[in-house]
Amino acid sequence: MAEIKASMGGTVWKILVQPGDRVEGGQEVAILESMKMEIPITAETAGIVKEICKNEGDFVQEEETLIRLEPEG
Fold it and tell me: Domain total for the chain?
């Protein structure tokens, strides 16, 4: 199972995927807000969204898991 993690501490501003969605490597899956800047979070690999670990409005630390992906196939 692959995990998509926060690249820095901040607030989850927007989650762009739902459980069951197929994502491609490089696709934006969430947006963090930190110091009034929007930071896009992208999937490193393709897969199916298994679990959304944080909700919009939650504060996250750097390297905290946002989304879990299940490999395809």
Answer: 1
- CB count in 10 Å sphere of residue 15: 18
Which two three-digit tokens encode residue 2?
Answer: 């692959």
Query: pLDDT, tens digit, for every residue of 10-61?
Result: 999 999 999 999 999 999 999 999 999 999 999 999 999 999 999 999 999 9
Measured CA to CA, the distance from residue 35 to residue 44 in angstroms comes to 24
- What residues contact 37, with CB distance under 8 A and at least 6 apart? none
pTM of the model: 0.92
CATH of the domain at 51: 2.40.50.100
**Segments forming the whole domain that contains residue 7:** 2-70
Nearest to 18 by CA among 48, 63, 39, 59: 48
